[in-house]
Amino acid sequence: MFSLAYSLTDEIEIGEQSYKLDMSFDNIIRLIDMIGDTELDDDIKVETGLEMLIGTSLELDLSTKSKVFHQIFEKAVAQKELKPSLDRQGNPMPESESAKVYSLSQDAEYIYASFMQDYGIDLFEQQGKMHWNKFKALLSGLRNDTKFKEVIQIRTSELPKGKGTEKERQRMSELKKAYELKEE
């Protein structure tokens, strides 16, 4: 969790074991890309993911490695609660599946330009330095007049309806097509 009251930490405890993590934003983006690669099998993703996060291979069986990797990913990267949300009867709540509005890889140019525009931060100079949680906070705090936020606005806006909006509808439709996310 991001809190101004506490320092950002790169350590996590899973069971009795403490792990030092590489939480630099560029490492986490590569990790997310690797996880999304449909050509890699899950065992390779677990092994590679652990090496990316903790810098070494664990001397554990694959099932245990998988559990450790998923717990680290959920707690440190995705920052989701490991316990599902429950309704009043104690049943797990369904997870909402909202449409993806941006991609860290496909929108990399827009993100880079927006960080330079808004913060004067060169993300290439920050590779290996800027913490993932700082990156996420800065990304979500970008002003609306940055290219990244403009692209998200185009992707999420409704097409105009009603009489006299044909030209604007056509223009927005063309913009939506131009900035549409490709299948990953």
Would you give an account of this structure?
This protein has seven helices and two strands; from the N terminus they run E-E-H-H-H-H-H-H-H. The protein is mostly helical. It folds into two domains: 11-78, no CATH class; 108-178, no CATH class. Strand 1 and strand 2 form a beta hairpin.
Number of helices: 7
Low-confidence stretches: none
Domain module count? 2
Q: What summary fits the major beta sheet?
A: 2 strands, antiparallel
| Rg computed from alpha carbons, rounded to a whole number of angstroms | 20 Å
Instruction: Name the shape in a single word.
Output: elongated
| β-sheet strand percentage | under 5%
Q: Average the pLDDT over all residues and give the rounded result.
A: 88
Number of strands: 2
- Strands of the widest sheet, in order across it, are 1-2
Strand/helix succession = EEHHHHHHH
- Structural class by helix and strand composition: mainly alpha
* Terminal-residue CA separation: 28 Å
Helix content: 40-55%
Protein name: Bacteriophage Gp15 protein
Organism: Shouchella lehensis
Region (Disordered): 159-184
